[in-house]
């Protein structure tokens, strides 16, 4: 996905008009991202005291693309920060939205929004629903969400760079799922009475190679 995002940005701006640097969280593989992008990617800890002043000094706009760290208040209040979220805000905020879309029968989708100090709660620039079928698992649902993310990113990158876009606030009831909620799904009560449908939904919600590595870790 990171290579697609880079291409979309470069295709949307005049050559040399925008200077772009790439960073990843300390939990990610900076060397792997550098190889994929063909650009240097540096790992930074957004919580480090020296990082926020550096970002404020060097940049006018910051994109968060599946970042694994929450941006601090000092950053989002002083720089325009835009987040690409693999969930349909405000209904499905937080970690692994496709998992909870399956488990809780929630809308599946992608959201592009301004960032605030509250996780996935800033004003919405654009969002898109994608179909969730009874045969989808976490992987197939996630792949469709990524395609939707790239679509709304491509549609909105130019007005974002030019500062010529409008935002809105979704009026749906917010739901936020944290990493602890996802990990709780691992704890199976073998004596709990559930329907076959609930069992199947639980299994397909956890069927994703990356999540299975997290579970086993």
From TrEMBL:
Residues 181-209 form the N-formyltransferase dimerization C-terminal domain. Coiled coil: none annotated. It comes from the Bacteria. Residues 57-153 form the Formyl transferase N-terminal domain. This is Formyltransferase family protein. It comes from Chitinophaga caseinilytica.
């Amino acid at each position: 996905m990171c290579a697609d995002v880079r291409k979309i940005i470069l295709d949307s701006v005049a050559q040399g008009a925008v200077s772009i640097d790439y960073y990843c969280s300390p939990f990610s593989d900076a060397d792997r991202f550098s190889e994929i992008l063909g650009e240097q990617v540096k790992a930074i800890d957004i919580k480090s005291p020296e990082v926020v002043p550096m970002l404020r000094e060097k940049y006018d706009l910051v994109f968060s693309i599946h970042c694994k760290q929450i941006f601090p208040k000092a950053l989002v209040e002083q720089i325009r920060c835009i987040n690409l979220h693999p969930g349909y805000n405000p209904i499905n905020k937080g970690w692994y939205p496709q998992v909870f879309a399956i488990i809780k029968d929630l809308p599946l989708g992608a959201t592009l929004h301004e960032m605030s100090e509250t996780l996935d709660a800033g004003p919405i620039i654009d969002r898109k629903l994608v179909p969730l079928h009874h045969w989808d698992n976490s992987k197939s649902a996630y792949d469709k969400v990524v395609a939707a993310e790239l679509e709304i990113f491509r549609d909105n990158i130019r007005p974002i760079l030019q500062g010529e876009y409008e935002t809105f606030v979704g009026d749906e009831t917010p739901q936020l799922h944290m990493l602890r909620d996802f990990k709780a799904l691992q704890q199976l009560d073998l004596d709990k009475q559930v329907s076959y449908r609930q069992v199947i939904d639980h299994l397909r919600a956890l069927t994703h190679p990356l999540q299975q590595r997290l579970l086993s870790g």
